Amino acid sequence: MVGDVHGCFRTLERALTELQFDPARDRLFGVGDLVNRGPHSIEAVDWLERRFTAVTLGNHDRAALNWFEAKLGGSHARDDDWKDTLDPRDYPRWRTALSQMPVALTVETPYGPVGVIHAEAPDPLWSRTVARLEAGSETDIDDALLGFEEYTPAIRRMKSRPVQGLRALVSGHFVVEEVEVTANRWNLDTGAGFENRNRVSLLEINARELRPLTLDVRELS
């Protein structure tokens, strides 16, 4: 499982090499925000079709998807980032890849299910979170991708407790200095794409012990 990549594809590649990742036998999941900030968003999205087993949708991925929708629909979309270098003939391909990213994902492991979501689980019971997101509530989807708009005392209490029905909930979005664990909630966003941080973190979820790895190197151009 990898946290926010934010276009730092080469860093992700080096982290997987260090872990001796074998695409023939290993699965790779992500918490979203594959794109923006770093210099290699195109390669990161390309891996959606080739290497990733599944990646949940992040808010930056949703923004990119909206950009492709606008372009293909004939609407104005500002050309000022990594998408400028794409061949317009490939727009349908990238739109399809991004549109297939789920908002929430459950990964079965030998030691129990692991939930994946970009920012927050809207409900403390995972099965209800999945049901609410499948129902398509825009408020719930915004919470899943951006986090709660207000941190009420009830929400703070909820976030300090385990998500029911899961071995672990893995997410990102909120940048932390080190991989952060609260109850069974793991935050893997250690700042990929930020010049003063640029750290990609991964978590082994198929072993008896959940093992994080953070790679702290400058993304190569």
Descriptive keywords:
alpha/beta; 221 residues
Brief characterization of the structure:
By secondary structure, the protein is α/β, with parallel strands linked by helices. It has helices at residues 9-18, 41-50, 59-72, 91-99, 126-135, 138-146, 153-159, and strands at 29-30, 54-55, 104-107, 114-117, 168-171, 180-182, 185-187, 199-204, 211-216. Strands 3-4-5-7-6 form a five-stranded mixed beta sheet, covered by helices on one side. The chain has a two-stranded parallel sheet with strand order 1-2.
Describe the structure.
By secondary structure, the chain is of the alpha/beta class. The protein is built from 7 helices and 9 strands; from the N terminus they run H-E-H-E-H-H-E-E-H-H-H-E-E-E-E-E. It has a 5-stranded mixed beta sheet with strand order 3-4-5-7-6, covered by helices on one side. A two-stranded parallel ribbon has the order 1-2. The two termini are 24 Å apart.
- Rg calc: 17 Å
State the low-pLDDT regions, or none: none
How many DSSP-defined strands? 9
What does the overall shape look like? globular
Q: Look at the helices and sheets and give the structural class.
A: alpha/beta
Oligomer: single chain
Helix content: 25-40%
H and E string: HEHEHHEEHHHEEEEE
Binned strand content: 15-25%
| Largest sheet data | 5 strands, mixed
Distance between the termini: 24 Å
Q: Count the DSSP helices.
A: 7
Integer average pLDDT: 89
**Sheet with most strands: strand arrangement:** 3-4-5-7-6
